[in-house]
Structures are given as C-alpha cells and as structure tokens.
Amino acid sequence: MAPELSNFETDSSARQQYSAHNPIEQYVLLAKGAKGAACIELIKQVLEAPGVHVFGELLAMPNIEELKSGPNANYYNTLNLFAYGTYRQYLENQAQLIPLTPAMQKKLQHLTVVSLAIKSKCIPYNELLDELDIKNVRVLEDLIIEAIYADVIHGKLDQKNKQLEVDYAIGRDIRKGDIKEIASTLQEWSDSCETILLCLETQINRANTEKQKRIKHKEAIEQEIANLKKTIKTQSVESDEAMATDGCRDMAGGLDLRKKPTKSKSLKGCGPGKSVSK
Q1: How many angstroms separate the CA atoms of 250 and 275, rounded?
Q2: I need a surface site. Which of 133, 158, 177, 214 has the fewest CB within 10 A?
Q3: Cα distance between residue 147 and residue 167, in whole Å
Q4: For the purposes of burial, counting CB atoms within 10 Å of the CB of 87, is it exposed (0-12), middle (13-18) or buried (19 or more)?
Q5: Angle at the Cα of 126 (from 121 to 127), degrees rounded to 5?
Q6: Coil, strand or helix: which one is 153?
Q7: pLDDT at 87 over 70
Q8: Residues 3, 38 contacting (CB under 8 angstroms)
Q9: CA-based torsion, 62, 65, 69, 73: positive or negative
C-alpha cells in the first residue's frame, strides 16, 4: 500500500519541524511502503527537500533499488548522482537522468561545491565556474552565499584572489568501494599521530631532565652561597675578636707609657754645702 504523500505535503509546518531533526529519516520511513509511482514521487521530493544532502539510506532501501533495472532507472540514477556525483557529471550524462527543477539544480550545485571543498580548501573561481556551468562571477558568488546560509559550507569569498576559502563543509555519502581508501587514510593519520606523540614524549622527558639538572645546579649554587656566607661571617667574627684583643694590648701599652718617673725628695732648708746626716 502506497503511503499518503499528499497528506504529508500539505502539513508543511510538521514537515519542516521533522526535517530539522532528521531530514532523511522521514523519506526512509515512507520508502518502506512505497511502490512504483509512489517511489518516483518520493525521489522527486527528496531531491528538492531543503536540508537533505545525504541519500545513502534511501538508496539502500529495497523498494528504491528495484528502480535500478526497470523503466524508471533514470530516477534511481539521478538519486545516485545526488548521493555521489557532481553537476558536471549531470551535464555529461543527462540522457540517463531526469530533468532537474531549479531547486534540484541548485542543490546539486551546492553538493558539487562540497565535493570540491573536500579536495581543496581554496577553490579558484575558474574551477567553480566550469564545474557549476556558470558564466557570471556575480551569479557564482550569489550561489556560494546561498550555500553558506544553508549551512552547507562555511568560508569566505576572496574577491581579490578570485577564490573561495572553505573552513568547513558537510559530509557526503560514501561509496562502499571508498571505505578501504578511507580506512587507509585514517590509519595513516593515526600513525602520524602516534609518531607525533612519541616525539612529544621525548621532548617532555628531555625537558624534565634538563629541569632536574637546573634544579640541582641551583641548589648547589645556593648551598655554596650559604657556605660562603657562613665562612665570611665566621671570618668576620674572628677578625672582630682579633681587633678587640689588639685594642686591649694597645690600651695596656699606653698606660705604661704614661707613668711618670719617680723623683727623689730633698729636705727644705738644706743649703749648699750642707749635708743631712741619717
């Protein structure tokens, strides 16, 4: 039994609220019971739906995979292109794909910018103009600004150097064949991190060793200074004591020098030529 897509379309507020939390999930749920024309209508909706930029879960649904070899294979091919491809690939394979509405075209162009951003963080205008099949730089810049406001990419337009500088880009669907390459890339990144960690540990150990050496050297210098101070203090005390002893001796010698010589007493009245008998 086909799901009631018309009811879902009329409730736009509920659709926007649900899409804000998990935009692809609603279409996956609908695809479980969709058959034939309902699947085709579902693909049209998901290709135009704002905020839906990954389609791998929907492609994996059995009802959608059935379209791959049937008369409506172009719908499956288009959904597959939105999951993994670019706008340039659409232009080169239009015979196997469905015509795009303006909303579909803009979304595929946004996804193309994401694919380019994954390869390089600075994308020249010339490359963007060619990949997006845009002839006017102003139109290109407007498209990029729309992608930024749609939170598809984060970055800025470098009009002086005519390039887009990307700081962030959403993730796209991954093919099964790309998993090994991704795992290899992650392993290389992990190995690089391990190497950097080992280098950091070596530097930390070396720094700690140097720190301990400096601490011991500082302690030795401080101990030597303390010993010198103690020695100087001891020498100062001994010098003061020696000076005090010398001072006492000098004072004693001075007293001896100040003693007056003893004079013999003579009796008054003794004139010359007179002698005193004992």
Answers
A1: 46
A2: 177
A3: 13
A4: buried
A5: 50
A6: strand
A7: yes
A8: yes
A9: positive
Residues present in the chain in total: 278
Least confident of 1-5, 179-183, 186-190, 193-197: 1-5
Residue 26 and residue 18 in contact, taking contact as beta carbons nearer than 8 Å: yes
- pLDDT, one tens digit per residue, over 46-56 is 999 988 999 98
Does residue 97 contact residue 81 with C-beta atoms inside 8 Å? Answer: yes
Neighbours of 276 (CB within 10 A): 8
User: 202-256 pLDDT, tens per residue?
Assistant: 999 999 999 999 999 999 999 999 998 888 888 887 777 777 776 666 665 555 5
**CA–CA separation, 267 and 278 (whole Å):** 12
3-state secondary structure of 264: coil
User: Residue 239 is inside which H or E element, if any?
Assistant: helix 179-257
The residues, ordered by sequence, that sit 6+ positions from 66 with a Cβ below 8 Å of its Cβ are 39
pTM across the whole model: 0.63
Separation CA 184–CA 182 (nearest Å) = 5
- C-alpha angle 213-215-217 in degrees, rounded to nearest 5: 65
